[in-house]
Amino acid sequence: MHGLIADFIHYLNVERGLAPTTQISYQQDLMTFQAWLTSQKRTTFPEDFAVIQAFLKKQNDTKAPASVSRMISALRKFYRFLLREGAVKTDPMTKIDTPKKAQHLPATLSGPEIDALMAKPDITKPLGLRDRAIFELMYATGLRVSELIGLRMDQLHLAMNLLQVTGKGDKERLVPISPQATEWVNRYLREARPQLIKQQQPKAVFVNFHGHALTRQAIWKNLKAYISSVGIQKDVTPHTLRHSFATRLLENGADLRVVQELLGHSDISTTQIYTHLSNQHLVAVYHKTHPRG
Predict the structure, then answer these.
(1) Which of 49, 159, 220, 261 gives 92 a disulfide partner, CB atoms 3.0 to 4.6 angstroms apart?
(2) Annotated catalytic residue: which of 157, 224, 265, 281?
(3) CATH 1.10.150.130 spans which residues of the chain?
(4) 84 catalytic, yes or no?
(5) Core-binding (CB) domain: from which residue to which, for each copy (predicted)?
(6) Running DSSP on this structure, what letter comes out for residue 158?
(7) CA–CA separation, 43 and 109 (whole Å)
(8) Active-site position among 77, 144, 243, 248
């Protein structure tokens, strides 16, 4: 069984070109499946869908719905691979339903909350100026935190108010930046970054005190500290700035397709969750402004 999983992961890498993180997730899911089969005294991958249902039922007891959905996706692809390779004669996954994902509306920050966050970093210090530039850029562009920490100096086109961003699946896109965010990034590059990198020449735009590229954990930790210090009670993560960016655009009349392109979503259904937040805003405006609202 282990050999078949290894062959499948190789297939995902060479023939399908799936992202390394997806390959690792699928491998972990399938190893969990194999371990459970071994505990049930099974030495081959079952073709009886009832066996797989029993496994998934056990996973539902301990894992989040999103994790179980991903596990089902891994099993679907794996069994199609097994069928193609002749390792099984039938595909039991055709009888397994994918559970519907519950839609959780992402948290966003209001205008005053954004203003309070932006005003908090001490811009007289290199790290404070860096943090202000980071928050301004994330809110102005909707970048994922992975895109921010992966941003290289050669991807900045600040004279044109543009960024060249490498997103999920190594897909590149051009992202416009507001003049205000551009000015903060330029100020960081002039006044703070040279002090942080000293004699080094890192490719990363945003660096830590030692001149090395920031990690997502560092961004998360810094943002949490600032949010706590300004008294915002919401559960805020770097992704909250991305959510706030998308929501403000839709509230102000941006087309959903435009927001999809800016966020780098491959499927517009991913972007559509923001319409729920936008609709809430429209209802609130209606009740506030209509004479009989």
Answers:
(1) 49
(2) 265
(3) 2-95
(4) no
(5) 1-83
(6) G
(7) 52
(8) 144
Q: Which is the catalytic residue, given 187, 224, 239, 281?
A: 239
| This prediction's pTM | 0.62
Query: Which residue in 76, 120, 168, 173 is the catalytic one?
Result: 168
Architecture of domain 111-288: Orthogonal Bundle (1.10)
In the residue annotation, 210 being an active-site residue is answered as no
242 has catalytic annotation: yes
Q: Is 239 a catalytic residue?
A: yes
Q: What does the pLDDT profile of the chain (293 residues) look like in tens digits?
A: 778 999 998 888 877 777 788 889 899 999 999 999 999 999 899 999 899 999 999 988 888 777 888 899 999 999 999 999 999 999 999 988 776 655 566 688 999 999 999 999 999 999 999 999 999 999 999 999 999 999 999 999 999 999 999 888 788 889 999 999 999 999 999 999 999 999 899 999 999 999 999 999 999 999 999 999 999 998 898 989 998 998 888 888 888 888 888 888 877 766 766 666 555 555 554 456 546 54
| Distance from C-alpha of 293 to C-alpha of 291, rounded to nearest angstrom | 6
Of the candidates 26, 139, 188, 274, the residue annotated as catalytic is 274
Q: DSSP secondary-structure letter at 213?
A: B
Rounded to whole angstroms, what are the CA distances from 188 to 179, 184, 209, 280, 285?
14, 6, 13, 37, 38
Query: Which residue is catalytic, options 77, 132, 193, 242?
Result: 242
